[in-house]
């Protein structure tokens, strides 16, 4: 703590007025887990204060305490220098604290207006209140350039706008301090930039913003001060201008971390995966894949960039055999594959194609199964794991233990249910299962979603290792940094089509433009 | 069918729809708040028994009605405690309530009245009497309008009118009031309600209490308005038909009225067509006619209504994350 105290901006003579928020000695345990221990934190008025830390470092818990969603075991909260007890969200709202949760707290079937007024209806009948809310919303939208149609239904809005509704909700409730928990996880780069402009504007008008994130780039871009959390403690607080991504990463993980992927030049061999004229129309008649053609050679990583929902998911599902295509050709290692057969995932796997699904809960794991059972899903017919109708539990467990050691899966207990592992460790279970069989082709979706920096470093290194061993890798990710850092070639998808191909040196701005469907010639200008 | 016969069928449609409407509206409040309730049947049954028992002993329809509502609300609170406070399975709790009501009414009926599970016949003061609308007798002989006004609209008891008035009232509460907004929100996304600083549990408790009141009205209607006493299992699946009507109506008040009237009409037609020879088929067995509403429920729910999307958080106890 001494180090943090030394760097604390409170020593800055300019910060003489009381801080917007001060946390003193906050402690919180969930059963045996101490999520927050002895937290001391000052958030200055009119600043954007970033809080970084790995998953499970206690960031969200701390902010939920501030918002009254949880109650601290010990410690004190001061708002504008006055100690207050926040026991529920409405008390936090009354104290001028608003929160935008990572998973939006919106009623999807309601309109924007109804969502904003929920809880502050201004009377038993909705009529009068609704008119007042509408007028106030228009004022807020004007003052903060936060346009959104008050009568649109939430489920019809893109996530970027849904988030805007969350911000409007907080502002309508008179939030002087706005907490945002991992706000950019669901946003495109352009949407994220817009969000940061909104936040800067809020700060310039005297409001205080607390930004929780694990993305260092966002901290560097958007914040004035930053605090780093590790294992439930605040390990450092400093001015953003006085630190660097590398220094922050080191504080977060507790050791030096490689932020850039180190890799040699790719040595591509023969084409292993050949895709031609792939097309897919979904049940609602929307074209999801439109004439998609590309090759992947042995020993190269091909990244697919795109705004979520532009056909990347469908592409992975078709290639891995989870879904049939309407038309097109696919060849694996020269051998043609029938794309119109449903439920072909097992036969693809036999051809040497492994698949790390982008949604590990829906398609990658059976969370009610134990770790060792999950480690053989899809490979359970393998002769190693039993004979005939019976499974060899010991062989399965030994196999799982090897993965656990190799991938440092924690806790190292093969009998623990998959649901009880953290997101990053669940991801490692899936990755180990799919990568450790030496596939010829690896299709991997969002390999590091919800994964800590330390583990990301490992996963990226492992992917490059597989590439160098001759595996053809198709990488789909919403993280442009990840795509650019790992890929040897980048395909950009928009509206189900491949709208361009770039090298890894392509700038984020160029890719971002392509992703929104602006043609390559326009992007070049 | 002659015009007079049609009026008679529609007249009994109204009578037979009322308990369905009341119970389904109760279910609407509960389920819109995210608490599934298959215990409508049990609540109606216990209310029917309590209303008839108190009505018979004290000779007051109003006391009977009050007792019916109290008994039904008591079971609602049991359901609420199990599924809101204890976060138990709403289905299991609902099943338990149905069994409890079936057993308890029969047992108490034997123990208190020794009439094979029935309550003693009610004195006229213990029942809701039919009300005659003004000028009903004067216009009786006017063609078309006369029978519609004096037979179809007039001559029902108070609870019938209350049942039909409850539909617009419910629509107004659900869509136009603060309570309704919060109720719909808590059934879709309780976390949004919680983070808006509103108590999820208290909101859901109020919803199940309202459900209890409606089921109490429905049950009391059966025993002290439509008939003059309680007989064992007198709800005979009406709670489940009401539940089907609620789903058929996709949890909306006005379509719910239509669905209940449809089921009531089938019931009325079944009674009317007993023993009647249908051209080309002959006499239709009574059992078939009685089974018709239930067959229709299956057919309608199986495919004719399109996708019925229930309130998103329905059936799921609310637990804060982690």
Automatic annotation (TrEMBL), chain B:
Pfam families: BPD_transp_2. The chain crosses the membrane at residues 6-30, 42-59, 91-113, 158-175, 205-224, 230-249, 256-275, 287-305. It is found in: Cell membrane. Signal peptide: none annotated. One of its GO terms (molecular function) is transmembrane transporter activity. It is a multi-pass membrane protein. It comes from the Bacteria. The keyword Membrane applies. This is ABC transporter permease.
